[in-house]
Write a structure and sequence with these properties.
The protein has ten helices and twelve strands. It has 410 residues and is α+β, with helices and mostly antiparallel strands. The strands form three sheets. A five-stranded antiparallel β-sheet has the order 10-9-8-11-12. It has a four-stranded antiparallel β-sheet with strand order 1-2-3-4. It has a three-stranded antiparallel β-sheet with strand order 5-6-7, with helices on one face.
């Protein structure tokens, strides 16, 4: 039996984490902003005024989010009774009757409630006493996960391509899950190894192996989804019997793009962007062709738009990384050397460590504009503004010139 009324505050762990971390973040962001201002006033900063404004703005935004999070964990509260749910948030509270809920979902251990009139679901995972909270929802509103599984069960029963009996259908789906699961695990391993290598080791052999795996896995998953349409899927639903390739596609796309962004070998010209745009568009269209029927079931246009934007984001990341890596890996050309001079140098501090950049005057491979290249620390320490350098540029397997090496001219 449920009590007549239950009240839920933010869980103790979440509250203490925010109350401990938020003030620390506010202090760090304030100190970093003050340091940037002093550096800018002293004329020691190397970036322009807009870059200074952007950096200070980012620090201020992080500090503001920390303040808001602190207020939220102290104010947020849910109250449930026989009439509905009272939600107290940052600036006010409202009552949602139970009949105004579409239902609830439990996705990866995270609890969401879906008010009919809201564009976004209510994220309830941060509230304490989750067992009692789930019991209230289970008795008052339908489970959308169960609804989806019931619809899926009807689809499987009606799909004669899977077989005529329940045993045949189960055997067919199990046979399809095996290669999809194997490809997903290849993507997870390649993403973990490739990401760690890009951040910490920068070993070319490891990068080669990881890049080849991450380029191939999404294409194979898409091919399977096209061959076994509506049976192999590029979405994810908790408890689904269908093989899903979404996690492998996302892991491959994000990490392949990250590996290419962190690589020190710069490309020249606009051809990389042009090929990336074309490949990303084709990749996204194939993805949408596979999943469009299921995407249209989403009634909330904001969630539909977020799903659509995610498809294009992951497609763009994968395409940019695939074009970059294939152009470099499959290149058998020899470097063509040219000479130029260093016009400027700078260091940038990022989450992955310090990066070193040199700006070069136009030369034969880039005759119309200066180019900023990322170099190793050893090369950076050997150079000075005005120093003459030799630049080795390779043609690229996709005709995208890329800088193989930069060295002081002897």
């Amino acid at each position: 039996m449920l009590p007549r009324e239950s009240s839920f505050a933010i869980s103790t762990l979440t509250r203490w984490l925010v109350l401990l971390i938020a003030p620390l973040l506010i202090a760090i962001m304030g100190w970093a902003a003050w340091d940037l201002v002093r550096e800018h006033q002293a004329g020691a900063a190397q970036e322009g005024p807009w870059a200074f404004v952007v950096r200070v703005g980012i620090l201020a935004a992080i500090a503001l989010v920390s303040v808001v999070a602190t207020i939220w964990v102290l104010r947020a509260r849910l109250t449930m009774n026989g009439d509905g749910m009272r939600v107290r948030g940052l600036f006010g509270s409202r009552v949602i009757p139970w009949e105004k809920f579409e239902g609830y979902r439990l996705t990866g251990g995270r609890l969401f409630a879906y008010p009919l009139e809201d564009r976004w679901p209510l994220n309830l995972e941060y509230f304490g006493n989750q067992g009692l909270l789930r019991a209230w929802l289970h008795l008052r509103i339908p489970s959308l996960d169960e609804r989806d599984l019931q619809r899926e069960d009807r689809e499987i029963r009606a799909d004669r391509e899977l077989g005529w009996t329940d045993r045949e259908k189960a055997a067919t789906l199990a046979a399809l899950r095996r290669p999809v699961k194997a490809l997903n695990w290849v993507a997870y391993a390649g993403a973990a190894i490739g990401g760690a290598n890009a951040i910490f080791l920068d070993d070319p052999t490891v990068q080669l192996v990881a890049a080849c795996a991450l380029m191939a896995v999404p294409l194979l998953l898409i091919a399977l989804a096209l061959r076994f349409r509506d049976q192999v899927r590029l979405d994810y639903r908790e408890g689904s019997l269908y093989p899903e390739g979404l996690t492998g596609v996302v892991a491959s796309g994000v990490i392949l793009g990250l590996m290419s962004l962190l690589d020190r070998h710069n490309t020249l010209g606009d051809r990389h962007a042009q090929l990336t745009t074309a490949l990303a568009a084709g990749y996204a269209l194939l993805w949408l062709n596979i999943e469009w029927k299921r995407m249209r079931l989403e009634r909330r246009w904001m969630l539909f738009g977020l799903y659509l934007a995610s498809v294009f984001f992951v497609s763009g990341f994968w395409a940019g990384g695939a074009v970059y890596q294939f152009n470099k890996i499959a290149d058998v050309s020899q470097p063509v050397w040219g000479s130029t001079t260093v016009t400027a140098m700078r260091e940038s501090r990022e989450k992955t460590g310090t990066s070193y950049h040199v700006k070069l005057a136009p030369w034969s491979a880039s005759p119309h504009e200066t180019v900023e290249l990322t170099v190793s620390r050893e090369t950076y320490e050997m150079l000075r503004p005005g120093a003459a350098v030799d630049v080795g540029v390779r043609r690229g397997a996709l005709q995208i010139p890329w800088v193989d090496s930069v060295s002081p001219r002897k």
